[in-house]
Amino acid sequence: MVTDTALELKQTLSTMFRRIEAGEDITHQLLRIDTLAREISPTAPTMLKHYLERRSYTKALAFLEHEMASTT
């Protein structure tokens, strides 16, 4: 499931968490995550869709990191 969209989603989630830690605005990242979630939804694994729909972004990032580590 490693697609360009999945890679961008992982990067955007990582950036969002870094910005949260730094106390910075995350509006742009949230909007981009919503867009990417819609794009990836038709082909995404059920659990990833569940995490994104519920805005469980920590779990979504962990899922993506695990998926990408297993394919390399």
Can you characterise this structure?
- The structure is a single chain.
- The chain has 72 residues and is mostly helical.
- It has one domain.
- The protein contains 4 helices and no strands.
- It has helices at residues 4-21, 27-40, 46-53, 57-70.
- The longest helix is centred in the first third of the chain and has 18 residues, at 4-21.
- The model has no long low-confidence stretch (mean pLDDT 94).
Q: Which stretches are poorly predicted, pLDDT < 50 over at least 5 residues?
A: none
Structural class: mainly alpha
Q: Could you say how many structural domains there are in total? A: 1
Tell me how many strands there are.
0
How many distinct helices?
A: 4
Distance between the termini: 12 Å
Measured by DSSP, the beta-strand proportion falls in under 5%
Give the overall form: globular
The average pLDDT score comes to: 94
Main sheet characteristics:
none
What's the alpha carbon Rg, rounded to whole Å?
12 Å
**Portion of residues in helices?**
over 70%
Strand/helix succession: HHHH
Question: What is this entry, summarized?
Answer:
The protein is mainly alpha-helical. The chain is 75% helix and 0% strand.
Summary tags:
single chain; 72 residues; mainly alpha; 4 helices
Chain-wise SSE layout:
Elements: H1 4-21, H2 27-40, H3 46-53, H4 57-70
Helix pairs in contact: 1-2, 1-4, 3-4
